[in-house]
Every structure is written in structure tokens, then in C-alpha cells.
Amino acid sequence: MGGARRVGWVAAGLVLGAGACYCIYRLARGQRPGSQRLRLRSSRSAEDLTNGSYDDILTAEQLQKLLYLLESTEDPIILERALVTLGNNAAFSTNQVIIRELGGIPIVGRKINDPNYSIKEKALNALSNLSVNVENQIKIKVQVLKLLLNLSENPAMTEGLLGAQVDSSFLSLYDGHVAKEILLRALTLFQNINNCFKKEGHLAKPAFTKGSLFFHLYGEECAQKMQALVNHPDADVKEKVTIIPKF
């Protein structure tokens, strides 16, 4: 059970990192069916915002209180409730902008490093809703890639990462026009996974399914992108590409 949940949020992170999270990642838990009409509520205390009905559109002031609560509490129950409330409110375009302008994306992004997997899941769900806004996507790529880089250094996570189902747009991270910060992180992710893959002694290709990260990273399309990046104008990118072993 724990392993399945771990792969679940890793897969979600990969999809988010690719910027392809328009309703692709859906949590089975914490979802509310239907499209109920939401209503505005008057100002309440920060913890009150996490109790009772989650079907309320919060004001900017209330969202600010909620973000402060996420930063100030270590109570896992309150954190989960706050992330659920924030995630539900992040489904609305106006709130996607407000949360970004309040500095909420890094606050939520830091919660995907929490050791509690339920908190990770709810943070990823909130980021998924926030990422529907185009201006939010770059900030969220960056946040998720930081997590994935940490995971990719651990050989024990290699099989789970490579087996995660990823949308084909993940490979857009390796386009030459991608911002240098993101491109270098994406290349380092590939390098780390490659190193761990070799270190684990996986000389024969395991039976990863079509659509998995393995399928994309070691496919022809990715090989072509790597070859194109050899001629990238930035020296750091060129150097990073050349040290990734060829399979």
C-alpha cells in the first residue's frame, strides 16, 4: 500500500513537472463529485477555514490566512485540511492568480517534501489546480523538479520513477527553448536516473509499460532531443548533455 501511494505521488509530480497537468492527475481520495455552486463566506480565523464545508470560495484575505497557517503549523491534520481547502479554491481562475500573487506557490510546493504521504498528495493536488493558470506553470515546474531531483539521487526510487506513467509532453522539458534553469534541472534528473539505473545493475531493460518515464527517456524522440541539445548555445547545457551516458 505504501509503495503504491509513493509511486502515485511521484507519477503526479512528473506530470506536473512537465506542465501537462490539465486535469490529468486526479486523486481518488478527497475528491468531491459534481460541480456544486460555491458561495462566498465572511472572514473567519485561519483554523476555522479548514473546518466544516470545503465548498466555499475564500476571499483574498482568507487565502492569505490559509497560507500563513500552512507556514506556521506542524499539525498534520490541520495541514491536510488547509491543503484541501486551498486546492479546492485553486480550481477557480481568480484564486489561481491571487494565490500566486500572495506567494502561495512556493509555500504549497514545500509541502511536497513533507514525510507524510497524505500531505504530499494534497499539496500536489493543489499545485495541479494552480497549474491550469499559464503564469503559474513555470513556478510549479521548478518546485516539482526540486523534489524529483532529490528522489532521483536515491537508487531505491529508480524503479518507481521509471515505471511512473507520464504524459508525452514530459519530453517538452528537453526542448532547446526551455528556460535554462528548468532545462538544467531536467537534464540533471535524467543524469541521476541514468546513474542509478546503471548502479542498480539493470543492464537488461525491464518490462516497463508504454507511457512510462522509461519509455519516454529511452525512446527515439528523447534521443533526438538530446542530440539537438548538443548544439545548444549555452555552454552549461551542452556540458550537461555530453556527460549523460548513451544507451
Strand order of the largest sheet: 1-2
Head-to-tail CA distance between termini = 33 Å
Low-confidence stretches: 1-9, 16-43
Shape: elongated
Domain Armadillo repeat-containing: 58-142
Protein name: Armadillo repeat containing 10
InterPro entries: ARM-like (IPR011989), ARM-rpt_dom (IPR006911), ARM-type_fold (IPR016024), Armcx_regulator (IPR051303)
Keywords: Membrane, Mitochondrion, Mitochondrion outer membrane, Transmembrane, Transmembrane helix
Describe the structure.
This protein is mostly helical and 247 residues long. The protein folds into two domains: 57-132, Leucine-rich Repeat Variant (Alpha Horseshoe), CATH 1.25.10.10; 134-246. It has twelve helices and two strands. The protein has a two-stranded parallel ribbon. Helix 7 runs parallel beside helix 9 (180-199). The longest helix is centred in the C-terminal third of the chain and has 20 residues, at 180-199. Residues 1-9 and 16-43 have low confidence and may be disordered.
Fill in the keyword field for this structure.
single chain, two-stranded parallel sheet, 57% helix, mainly alpha, disordered N terminus, 247 residues, 12 helices, elongated, Leucine-rich Repeat Variant
Give me the secondary-structure topology.
Blueprint: H1 2-17, E1 39-40, E2 56-57, H2 60-72, H3 76-89, H4 93-101, H5 104-110, H6 117-130, H7 134-152, H8 158-163, H9 180-199, H10 213-217, H11 220-229, H12 235-242
Parallel strand pairs: 1-2
Helix pairs in contact: 1-6, 1-7, 2-3, 3-6, 5-7, 7-9, 9-12
Short characterization:
The chain has 247 residues and is mainly alpha-helical.
